[in-house]
Amino acid sequence: MININENYLKLKSSYLFTEIEKRVTAFRDTNPDKEIISLGIGDVTKALPRACIKAFQRAVKEMSDDNSFRGYGPYKGYSFLRDKIAEIDFNCRGADISPDEIFVSDGAKCDTGNIQELFSLNLKVAVPDPVYPVYVDTNVMAGRTNEWEDGRYNGLIYLDTTEENDYVPSLPHEKVDLIYLCFPNNPTGATIDRERLKNWVDYAKENNALILYDAAYVAFIRDSSIPQSIYEIEGAKDIAIEFRSFSKTAGFTGTRCAYTVIPKKCMAYDKNGNKHSVHNLWDRRQTTKFNGVSYPVQRAAEAVYTQEGQKQIRSLIDYYLQNAKVIRKAFEELGYKCNGGDNAPYIWIKTGKDSWEFFDLLLNKANIICTPGSGFGRCGKGYIRISSFNSQEKVKEAVNRIKTALR
Ligand code: MLT
User: Fold this and answer.
1) Which of 37, 308, 322, 326 is at 20 to 30 A from 391, Cα to Cα?
2) Strand order in the sheet with 371-372
3) Same structural domain for residues 317 and 173?
4) Is the CB of 109 under 6 A from ligand 1?
5) What pTM, to 2 d.p., does this model score?
6) pLDDT tens, residue by residue, 36-58
7) Does the CB atom of residue 237 touch ligand 1 within 6 A?
8) Inter-residue contact 230 to 214 (CB < 8 Å)
């Protein structure tokens, strides 16, 4: 008899987006003639930037010739990509990150999910609520939580992020060890200012904690006063890991490329109090379990950093931000309170109804898919998240349908 990892039994039956998919499939089966517009899962719809495509094609061509063919790449990623990331995403913004501190990977979801493996099961883990479900579920799978009760797992510390604190979690009253932060935020669309981010960095330093900073949506920041990286804050290199992705920045959700920064100064401790480099632990983990991102994909990602690439990703993000503006305006005109959509692709909408009830209402009356806020946590109850990832034509049509359905 094979015994299972019983922590899996603690998980709610399905991942949020799988549950949505189930409901949508059921709706499609009974309404085959209805054209559904998805503003649900944050999946990009526009083609890869031309600069990336050209680099991708050139690299594929190299793979077709024995003289330029490449097999396994370096575990951390090719230096042609890591050099550009360090220079353009960090050094140019005053954040001192070296290429050697960067691990190229196939996704921020995988990295934010896997990173907890490095740490003890006894840690006090803090997550925002609402929260990207991956942070929570991977800690449940690992055995860091007890039973699910009243919309939360016992054993985790939830940081309420609500209208009252502008959707930026306040510092915990108790001492926590591992802190997940995500800015621009999924799902609330909130951003964090320098001062509040500094408070978090100071808290982590004072409490020997580690911040796991998910900046997958950084490309949507248009307000220059908002920090793009946690490493723009002094002292963050000692206590923070940052996750970035090309998925939303350059339309790579189906192409797969991301990276994680683990500064060499970042330390964690064994039970005898001896310190260990988190960077080295992750390196050990990745070299054992991961064989890197394909060469053509890394070349395509590198092209993001060319002049042409930078221009193209800017207009790609502007396109989605324009959608976000249209969606937010429509809901506000209908009298709903909204957050986000200005420096983020998501709009967080207070519905005044149960989230799933509102989801069903939009699906049935407007044939629009959104994401129920309660799926992201207890503080998401009564909210929905609308994603701006779709074509401008479809968003226009969606907004018209929503106006008719909700008036
Ligand atoms: C979302 O809709 O929250 C995103 O698609 C999540 C992800 O990128 O994994």
Assistant:
1) 308
2) 337-340, 346-350, 383-387, 371-372
3) no
4) yes
5) 0.97
6) 999 999 999 999 999 999 999 99
7) no
8) no
